[in-house]
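DM between two lab members

TW: hey, do you still have the Tetratricopeptide repeat protein entry open?
JB: yeah, one sec
JB: this one, 505 aa:
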Amino acid sequence: MSDMQPSKRRFARRQKRWFFPVMAVLIGLAPVILFELGLRVIDWQPQIVLRDPFVDFQNVRPLFVRSEDGQNWGTAENRLEYFQPESFAATKPPDEYRIVCLGGSTVQGRPYSIETSFTTWLELSLQAADPAKQWKVINCGGVSYASYRLVPILEEMLQHEPDLIVVATGHNEFLEDRSYAGIKQLPDSVAGAYRGISQLRVTQWVHGLAAPASESSSDQDSDVTSRNMMTTEVDALLDYRGGLAKYHRDDDWQQSVVMHFGYNLRRIIEMAKSAAVPILLVDLPVNLRDCPPFKSEDTAAVSDADRQRCEELVTEARERFSLDRRKAIEKLELAVDINPRHAGLHYQLGLLYFDDQQFVKAKQHFQIAVDEDICPLRMVSPIRERLRQVAAITDTPLVPSRQRFEMQSKGGIPGQNWLLDHVHPTIPGHQSIAAELMSTLEAMEVVSPRDDWQVERERRYQAHWETLTPVYFERGKQRLEGLRLWSEGRAKKLRGDVKGVQDSP
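TW: and the structure you got?
JB:
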């Protein structure tokens, strides 16, 4: 007992040492905590700042204009290079449920068009599930449109009484050249803490007070010069001859692009929620198995001797493949160890693992091949992770289309079975995305399907399919070939050309 008394006294002294400092901090934070609770009780919402601190546009043109008779809104003629013709009623019918879908060419339905996009299959599905309601799905998919170009479109579409916003983006973030020289990257731990603090209503309230003053200060001029002035429409690097050569490994730039993507998603979600419109995000699939990297570069530290050794190992792997697949895998594993950031080596190793039925390892190397692709035309892991983070932080539903494609693919690795090229789904693939959206909408109680509604859906699908002409599919094949040439850097447009926009994602 006598031995325990000193230890108790020491514990009591330690308690006193940290108790009073902790109490002092809590007392100091009490007003902030109470103010935060008060703002939440009254449901105070910050004013949404539409201005992008990283990019600006030379001009923003409306996507939709009124028809001559004033009865409808239709795609503006000067936007038809990047968008397909679409229309909706100027006066929204009382029983209409209006869904606006934003994104790139995947939303548009490339290499085909809106007629076989998931937006059309979704509308047909909703009509079959609940014909008592008038369903309208508006396709706002723009060729090569990245997240920062979707913000002005959403701002416009919120004026047209949407009931739901669907955003499917993430493939096009690296298409246009822009600088982030003034942005400093923060460690993940610091960035995470900053994101948490920035979500406090108190922080947003103080920022709202300071914003008018900062905008009127002399900092405004320097801010404008630090932002990228983007062309009115997309100006993708691959739209020009030799565009592929412009891509080089730049980890800092990629991190800044990922940060900008997350910022754009947050703005899009905040805009929708501020307008009291529900919003969904879509986790888009990519072609892992049947699409090699568009450009590979050696790891920075690789010497000429290492590079030569890698070439020898690749040659040996090819020679041994038909005789001893495991030995071929070992050769390529050695090459990857020597040159770990070479996207092409990872892709070849993924193919060997896939043929050997080692699907977990195959998927791992296929994904590394996507992430290390010097010309990232497919959603890379950091972009997808930021998509998940933003969805979780903002409590926004994330439609698991990618997972659905994986479940329906051998070894969980999507390829040409569901995608026509690197990112564009087949027509059954679009129907699969529509089915996943239907499941999400049913879970949200947006739609309550009647019994055996799938039978009616298939009937509507078939009736719609019969309206599509051979010319429609032939044009799709031509666009697909154009996409292939574009992704290989074989565009013919020269800098300074006014016309000649290439097909792109």
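TW: got it. The first strand starts at residue 55 and ends at 57. Strands lie at 55-57, 64-66, 72-75, 87-89, 96-103, 134-141, 164-168, 228-230, 279-282, 398-399.
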